Amino acid sequence: xxxxxxxxxxxxxxxxxxxxxxxxxxxxxxxxxxxxxxxxxxxxxxxxxxxxxxxxxxxxxxxxxxxxxxxxxxxxxxxxxxxxxxxxxxxxxxxxxxxxxxxxxxxxxxxxxxxxxxxxxxxxxxxxxxxxxxxxxxxxxxxxxxxxxxxxxxxxxxxxxxxxxxxxxxxxxxxxxxxxxxxxxxxxxxxxxxxxxxxxxxxxxxxxxxxxxxxxxxxxxxxxxxxxxxxxxxxxxxxxxxxxxxxxxxxxxxxxxxxxxxxxxxxxxxxxxxxxxxxxxxxxxxxxxxxxxxxxxxxxxxxxxxxxxxxxxxxxxxxxxxxxxxxxxxxxxxxxxxxxxxxxxxxxxxxxxxxxxxxxxxxxxxxxxxxxxxxxxxxxxxxxxxxxxxxxxxxxxxxxxxxxxxxxxxxxxxxxxxxxxxxxxxxxxxxxxxxxxxxxxxxxxxxxxxxxxxxxxxxxxxxxxxxxxxxxxxxxxxxxxxxxxxxxxxxxx
Length: 493
Known about the structure:
Elements: H1 19-29, H2 32-45, E1 49-51, H3 54-66, E2 71-73, H4 92-95, H5 138-149, H6 153-163, H7 176-183, H8 187-197, H9 210-220, H10 226-233, H11 235-239, H12 243-250, H13 254-265, E3 287-291, E4 297-301, E5 309-311, H14 313-321, H15 326-363, H16 365-370, H17 380-387, H18 391-398, E6 402-405, E7 408-411, E8 419-420, E9 429-430, H19 431-443, H20 453-462, H21 469-478, H22 484-492
Parallel strand pairs: 3-6
Antiparallel strand pairs: 1-5, 2-4, 3-4, 6-7, 8-9
């Protein structure tokens, strides 16, 4: 067969990623802070764009709030309601003072932006500077470990909530009783999650006070004996440099006390300080959820958080009339079109966030009413099908977008959980609710006749939960619950 050049014409269809569509996709996935920076850049670049005056923005916000973008949703969840941190004895500034311490060692139809794919033009590729290594924050470091340590979506949500409460020093500043009440869990469950967090690197992180922080580090070094524990109980005396009283309490001489103090001074009182000062920007929710007097849930956008920009058409017309060349007219027309598209994209972003938030609240009203244990199985596709959008669009909307609920502020993506099918063909069960039932069965089992995994499977199937024995074992191990043989041995003593 001879090789020859020939000319062929083929017809095909393809989606063209226009700059406007790329901009709309980019805006949709930006967080509040990133969006404000982007708007500021556009205001500097585009003379046809300007900030909306405050009096007009308030009127527009009221009008937007009165439209269909504020929704009341009924509560249909069924179930029953499930059932203070220690003060710091001495500050680490006092304990680690060198003095006196012994020396020791809606414009148009709804647009599905996601179907365009993820392609970018050459001009939009990341610059070389943006590829340089960035300092990992303490929060990111802990979240990475939490994703590996917790399999249960319920536990992951609780852990993320606690990690958000950690200060730059690595201390957990919470009221345990209040947090447990907000999340709809018991304090024992909260303490279990905190205990796991306190095993994370750096050692001592997530402690409630100095004593707890130092004890974790000494335990890691296998130096936490009875006398060291007693010294930690009397940190206030160490802060006051009352060494004579400490020797009497610990029943040691001055040399031994100096060695113990040296071990204390070798520890890190601020385990989170090694990550530097993180940006402590307060999370501003994109959506508010509140309960109306009639018992319905009201979902509304945070209008204070919406960028307030508009197109200055009068300025564009004036410049266009006085333009001397076609290039000048073309430039101002292009700026006007870009500004108009940006305003439309911002409006579309706000309405898309609200649509997704509405559906999440409708699906997860059990969480709002009863707490984390009543989260329902939910995936991106479930929300996408209801609001008639692509899954990747929902994914973009739920990333870095926050919702303020009566139980706290959560990222939208936290409400998506896996499901377990029903043995009777009914509604699927959330995996975390199944874990909760497994834990309840084990807590209530007879002391001398603990339930085996097979027995738990039979009981759950009677309640309509189709689950395999290996899945029960997996969930049990994830909750750090030993086998039935080990539990029987432990309870027999």
